[in-house]
Amino acid sequence: MSEWPGSVGIVGCGAMGRAVAAGLAAGHAGLGQAMVLADPIPDAAEGAAGETGGRTGSAAEAGACDVVVLAVKPRDVDAALRAVTPSRRPGTLALSVVAGRSLDQLAAAGFGEPAVRLMPNLAVRHGAGVVAVAPRGLDVPRRDAVERLLRPLGAIVELEESLFGAATALVGSGPGILALVAEGLEEGAVGAGITRESARAMVTGVLAGTAALLADGADPAALRQMVTSPGGTTAAAVRALERGAVRAHVADAISAAAGHTSAS
Which is nearest to 130 in space by CA: 82, 79, 164? Predict the structure, then answer.
């Protein structure tokens, strides 16, 4: 566990804001006690504070921290920034996880620079997430600082902001798509006679193990071929999936999600 020499204000303690707060607090020694959690719904802020060890406060108090994370819904951005901006010190690092709002739009609303747009997923809570990053106005030391801050959340991938629609589709929607695959694996195992409890435990292990193999840099196609023996069970399973064009449908799903994100 590393240390982070400063305070972090989280403005918006919904599912994503709380996940980011939890991941940061778990990954940096003592950071939880240096967090200010703000949300219009007191129970949301109190729940996040209880999980991280931080304290609840107003958006203005969160805005006075060394790092400000904006995690509100898009419709609440303007009101949040009106509360945060007056207390934000010049040069304070601002991170946004607001979906569908570009850095240009946030700057026009008073977000300012230096700023970083993030696209995380909920797995950042466990340090196993993916965070797409698009920085603006950051010098090299500040870029390094952002990387150190976010490192405990999982894989950090810097992208051009123009690609955030696709990143949102993959990073944000990917877990939902994989969860659908997990449902299918579980149902198939139950149909073959395995108890649901055992099937779920095995499906979880299969997904985690496959992720670990891919994390070594394995090409997905090469991994599939490695476990597919001629005439074997995997070959039969893949053949059934290919008859249904499952691979093409998954790719189409990401394209559809990316298009929906760009249009919203």
Answer: 164
Q: State how far the Cα of 151 lies from the Cα of 139, in Å rounded to an integer.
A: 18
Specify the CATH architecture of the domain 168-263.
Answer: Orthogonal Bundle (1.10)
Instruction: Determine contact, residues 84/25, Cβ cutoff 8 Å.
Output: no
Helices 173-191 and 246-263: crossing angle in degrees, nearest 10, is 150
pLDDT tens, residue by residue, 210-246: 998 988 888 999 999 999 999 999 999 999 999 999 9
> What's the token pair of residue 151?
């490192």
- 72-125 pLDDT per residue, tens: 998 899 999 999 988 888 878 899 999 888 999 888 888 878 899 999 999 999
The CATH architecture of the domain made up of 2-159 is: 3-Layer(aba) Sandwich (3.40)
Q: What residues does each domain of the chain span?
A: 2-159, 168-263
pTM: 0.82
What 3-state DSSP class applies to 219? coil
DSSP H helix total and E strand total for the chain: 12, 10
Q: Please, which pLDDT band fits residue 261 given cuts at 50, 70 and 90?
A: low
